[in-house]
Write a structure and sequence with these properties.
Strand content: 15-25%
CATH superfamily of the largest domain: Putative cyclase
Largest sheet: 9 strands, mixed
CATH architecture of the largest domain: 3-Layer(bba) Sandwich
CATH topology of the largest domain: Glucose Oxidase, domain 1
Number of domains: 2
GO molecular function, one term: hydrolase activity
EC number: 3.5.-.-
Protein name: Cyclase family protein
CATH class of the largest domain: Alpha Beta
Distance between the termini: 24 Å
Organism: Nocardia fusca
Number of helices: 10
Pfam family, one: Cyclase
Order of helices and strands: HHEEHEEHEEEHEHEHEHEHEHEEE
Strand order of the largest sheet: 1-15-13-7-9-11-12-4-14
Length: 337
């Protein structure tokens, strides 16, 4: 079996000329104007009501998997770009209740807490206002006219609050390629780029349930998170990583997926394939394609289930917190099989 979509010829790929390569890819994969000049949803437009109905029919056992990493002070962040791990503080405790210090009548007591954290410090969505290209945001808008000091005034994450519910497809790249790469664990090495040919090969190996198409939410497990759980975070946040190749942009565009999420900090391969570029695939898929990106997802338990059953699709609910004007959001994605 082979993939049922053939990607058109991609633009010339020249690592020594990153500016021209990025510009050509942006033109190749642009969705600007596709859903009108006022659109705020980008590729989430592919995930319509009919797709959600079909996705709900995938539930046969009712078993659930949380695809979130823990949100705690021991998380992956190291402070780069002021991204810190969550700080959880109790404002009322059981001891307060025991000593009657809470001011409630007749023995009533309780506990309360607060959390302080960057919105993209653990399992999260990148919204459409997160990345710009040459000062342009999704759909060709001026970046400064979209995101101001008061937040994203146009494509804030709240615009997706009720939309990211649908069919998820897991491509377990770490497990699928472990044998041919001679890996001890089902974990791709840092710097390993997942090209279109490799993505198609993984689909062929996994079978019909992993076909990727219109409105799907693609989950890609590299195994880097598994390695971090075993060996410690190291440079997980912002360091070298396996991930999607820059050359995968047309593959993602042509399949008309609604969103994509990986188990890595930055979704795309690091170091980048284009000399001197920083996150060039982000630079294409968010502002030009309008694609939602999920990062730092925990795909391990779902991957074990998929490997055991040979079934690589699930019903997924992955709603962002509707933080008005935010350009990203924490999420606790739930896959139901």
């Amino acid at each position: 079996m082979t993939s049922d979509i053939t990607t058109d010829t991609s633009p010339a790929f020249d690592p020594e000329n990153p500016a021209a390569t990025i510009e050509a890819m942006a033109h190749r994969c642009s969705n600007w104007g596709r859903w009108g000049e006022d659109d705020v949803h980008g590729t989430l437009n592919f995930l319509d009501d009919g797709a959600r109905v079909r996705a709900a029919q995938l539930v046969t056992t009712g078993q659930t998997f949380s695809l979130a990493q823990p949100f705690n002070a021991e998380g992956p962040q190291k402070g780069w770009r002021r991204r810190t791990n969550p700080v959880h503080t109790m404002t009322d405790t059981g001891l307060d209740a025991e000593y009657g210090d809470q001011g409630f009548p007749f023995g009533f007591g309780g506990a309360d807490d607060v959390i302080a954290m960057p919105l993209q410090c653990s399992t999260q969505w990148d919204g459409l206002g997160h990345i710009f290209d040459h000062g342009r945001a999704w759909n060709g808008r001026r970046a400064g006219g979209v995101v101001t000091s008061e937040g994203d005034q146009v494509t804030g994450i709240e615009t997706a609050a009720d939309r990211i519910v649908g069919r998820a497809v897991l491509l377990d790249a770490g497990r699928a390629l472990a044998g041919e790469l001679g890996l001890e664990y089902s974990e791709l090495p840092d710097g390993f780029a997942l090209t279109p040919d490799l993505l198609d090969r993984i689909i062929d190996q996994q079978g019909v349930s992993s076909q990727v198409g219109r409105g799907d939410i693609l989950l890609v497990r590299t195994g880097q998170y598994s390695r971090a759980r075993r060996e410690g975070w190291g440079d997980y946040a912002g360091g070298a990583a396996p991930g999607l190749s820059f050359r995968s942009a047309p593959w993602l565009h042509d399949r008309e997926i609604a969103a994509i999420a990986t188990d890595t900090w930055g979704f795309e391969v690091r170091p980048t394939e284009l000399n001197g570029a920083f996150q060039p695939l982000h630079q294409i898929v968010i502002p030009h394609m309008g694609l939602y990106i999920g990062e730092m997802w925990n795909l391990d338990d779902l991957a074990e289930y998929c490997a055991r059953t040979g079934r690589y699709e699930a019903f997924l609910v992955a709603a962002p917190l509707p933080v008005t004007g935010a350009v990203g959001s924490p999420v606790n994605p739930i896959a139901v099989v």
